[in-house]
## 1
Amino acid sequence: MPDATLTLVGRGVRLSRRNPDALVTAMVLPVMLMLVFVYFFGGAIDTGTGTSYVTYVVPGVLLLCAGFGASTTAVRVSEDMRAGIVDRFRSLDVGATPILAGHVGASLVRNLLSTGLVVGVAFLIGFRPEAGAAGWAAALGLLFTFVLAVSWLSAAAGLLARTPEAASGFTFFMMFLPYPSSAFVPIGTMPGWLHGFAEHQPVTPVIESLRGLLLDRPVGDAPWVALAWCAGLLALALALSGALFRARTR
Amino acid sequence: MPGTTAIEAVGLRKSYGDLRVLDGIDLRVPRGTVFSLLGPNGAGKTTTVRVLATLTPPDGGRARVAGHDVVAERARVRRAISLTGQYAAVDDLQTGAENLRMMGRLSGLSRRDARRRATALLERFDLAHAADRPAGTYSGGMRRRLDLAAGLVGEPEVVFLDEPTTGLDPRSRQELWRVVRDLAEGGAAVFLTTQYLEEADRLADRVAVMDGGRVVAEGTAESLKSRVAGHRLDVVATDAAAYERLAAKAGTLTRAHAAPTADPGPRRSPESLTLGVPTDGGAPSVRALLDALDPDGTDVARFAVRTATLDDVFLALTGATTAKEPARA
């Protein structure tokens, strides 16, 4: 029923647009973080990659921003489940997939905006990528595959949480997941016991691919590892959210 | 969709763990009528509605709504019904018009038809002036009307209203009652749950009283009222000791003087020193009853004869009192 999905994406976008607090947080927070990293910490960080720190860190900020933006889907879904509106949708024979897809679609739209904003500000403060059109397209394609997977996973988290407050815990988790990765500093500078996790967690191949694609450097198999992670997470999220939705609406 | 039965349920059962919520519910509701399910909190009213509206599958029994089985033909039932629950299911951040247009689109209307239907419903529910305001700015009554309108976008044959007037002020309640009657006159079957006797009495063609997961009585409000004595004699005692003496006598005497139908027993309100005793309301029996309760003429301060209400029925059938006045929102 693509009509219902489209209608509910429209709803999700309208609701996001009219929730100024959440919107400002989603737009301003990533920019603030980027400024903090570049101006406060950047002077002290030598990444050993031969690029300026702003160029090193922008892919990380993009990913942080994407993970955070996507994870707010959990709160939106949880709010819906608490209100009577899901019963109303179900009594119109609209099922779990369009209801959740509406929130995921709105999340993609929100992220398109926040990504645009971060990239814009990054250029202003000296971000100078070397990617051509193909590199950009591949990087953005990968970033949005990641947003899609995390958004569905958030939708599942939103179904699992009993209250929107609990659901926002997932947002917190996604905010911190990029730190133990190569998003902000090279993994080699972290303590040894953290290497295993930092190198093999799903965020790292996405970061490595984004950085490589945007700086026009060899990326090896990172994009494929990243895509495999995204596909796996998406499949897990779809199965999990379907089962959780059925359990919640018994 | 031939036939005139809109809702038919036979032996519906539902448990949540060890808690038996529905214990064999039988119901029949014809088209074009208002049916009211009356019961205290926790009686199983909401669960009954959820089962009939296909949102919760029953553990046992069968139900057909608008001619379709609620389990096997869920999608068809859903296309023929609407459900307005206890909590307004509208988006606060969308305007009234946007909420209704969205419901229209989800019911399968084209963009144009959805807009037309939204405008017509806003007009009908006296919300046209607030069409472009976010629903979050509406008053309680306006929200409830918008919620009801949202349920009617798909022109349902069967309308379920779960405690539709809980928390509404008296004026909004009256407006909602008018809409419910209009719906039934338009040919829809309206199934509403309520804790308020007055609502069932004023609105419903038939009333079922529910308690502990069972239907304990069913019929017109009139026929239910005739199941208890037609009248009640309320006596107010002079003091607490007199009240005790009256109460003790009432327990043994009512059977002799009360109307012969059903005996709900005396109704006790010690805090106001008032005792209600069933009677047929005639002067000879009232006089005899007063003499029997108070032979020395010292214990009764005042008395009044009242017509039995559904509340008496309810008390007699369930042993619980109902909410008399809606809580203010």
## 2
Amino acid sequence: MKQVSTISGRAIPLGLKNVDTDVIIPAHWLKTVSREGLGKGAFESIRQTPGNPFDVEDFAGAPILIAGDNFGCGSSREHAAWAMLDMGLTAVIAPSFSDIFSGNAFKNGILAVELPQEQVDRLLEVAKDHPITIDLENQVVTTPFQDRFAFEVDPFRKHCLLNGLDEIGLTLERDASIAKYEETRAASLPWLDAPHKKRREPA
Amino acid sequence: MASKPRTLYEKIWDAHVVERQDDGTCLVYIDRHLVHEVTSPQAFEALRIAGRTVRRPDLTLAVPDHNLPTTPRLASDGSRLPIADKQSAAQLAALEANAPAFGIDYIDAVAPEQGIVHVVGPEQGFSLPGTTIVCGDSHTAAHGGIGALAFGIGTSEVEHVLATQTLLLRPSKTMEVRVEGELGPGVTPKDLILHIIGVIGTAGGTGHVIEYRGPVFEQMSVEGRLTVCNMSIEGGARAGLIAPDETVFEYLKGRPYAPSGEAWTDAVEWWRSLATDEGASFDKSVFIDAADVEPTVSWGTSPEDVVAIGGAVPSPDSFADPSKQEAARKSLDYMGLAPGTPLEEVEVENIFIGSCTNSRIEDLRAAAAVLEGRKKAANVRWAIAVPGSGLVKRQAEEEGLDRIFTDAGFEWREPGCSACLAMNPDKVPPGERCASTSNRNFVGRQGPGSRTHLLSPAMAAAAAVTGRLTDVRKLMGE
């Protein structure tokens, strides 16, 4: 995982509620076997609407997106996170996120920052003309004005992001614990293991 | 001292914690991992680059479903027909190569057991009560219908499970959805779950695992339970489950991957111990009277946008929340609907009966019962029935259901996800409506510009016959 600490720059004031992952990246883009190049399809249906915020020149290459409640609901497709990264987005601010999306965002080093609706509303206003800064270390979102909005973050995720840790690498270090669990499980619930054998060699 | 009463979710969770970190994050063991072609190629590629192997190929099962065309797969000489779309063909070929390369059991595109991963898992007895089940697909929640803790994961998590057979997770909150009473005639599990999502909202279950409780679920078939749990994610919950009981055991007994003999007896004994204890508490409770549930359809572009079939398209101003008003205005504009229009006046040009929500034998029977002796209306341009698996298809054909569908003017297809997400060639054209038994009515879900109305298989059949959204009860018993 790439290291993340502070993200600063323009923020696209989308504001919409319930932005689902089909909207972030429609299914016809999912035929790829790569993580790259999905930015072209990101927010396709919104970008086809005249006057959408993605078209505003000032927001080209903006690292932050501001959205409404329940961002990233629906499909588990991690392509949504890859598409956002590919278009240059490395953080989303919203009042709430779907559970699966916030996990996918974290695994790709995208900050999913939850703030109350009033603070999101304020940031939507500021973002029209000014940059925003997200400081992960101090867990605070700031603007060029007096705004200082503190946010919560899972301590383990914060630790991984600040240090650029590889989660799979960390878990593989727990191999002995996993093996021990498997041993106990094989003793108490042996029928859970190797179900295929029963398929191939019916009793 | 007696131990604290626990919920079904807590019992399954506790049985799978390998390690608990000081910060509350847990390393959780995964019993069953289902893999399909769309969300796995990047995970296998990453394993290859890092020189990692699959820890437990024996607990992993791969089957293609999302991207596969539902047109015939074999030529008359028995050879495999090529897939026209090159990208789709390459993605399917990747799974076909990755599964054996990593030692994973693979059900290929022309095997009789092939089907939608969430139909195949329970049908093969690969999905079992009390287990943790994951898949790179949010509708994995379906397997909760047999009493498993099952949830969708992203591709990085697919890779994590392949490499370690575990996931790093924090415990979810618990939510009880209790339904008392009895569902009326013509009211199905699909109507019930649409109604529930309408009550709790699409984010109502976020951060929670739902347990569906009450007599309605106890009396429900396994197929119906899978339908209900499947759409938990549409209510924001990553997983939903129902306590495993004799109905589930009866369904699973003798399935290819299910335990047998003495192991079966031991398994059932353990499964019986999993039901939520008397006195266990939930973080959130929702109570629903089954008598309030009518045949239900969606009118907007979020699964919470539902109304009883006898109702009308709501006015955006009828919502208290200003952001919901704005969302409703956008939805109605996209859907081409005016507030106040009775749902039964809405004409549909397309009918889709299928998806991991409603493609099991009971669903096809319910639709066929309405279609028998009838034909699709003249304005219905395209109607397809897509069985959830090859075995469902075969069973339906043995019962003569395929003839009922084709006589009514439906196309009878090969199994797959099809027009639910329109990744393969099965798409609804821009601006056209589809009465669909699938699970999502999102903007563009069934193809760019498509307009989806979610409903039950019986209601989809009724819409096919009349050419508009219709209360199926009017066609019953005629």
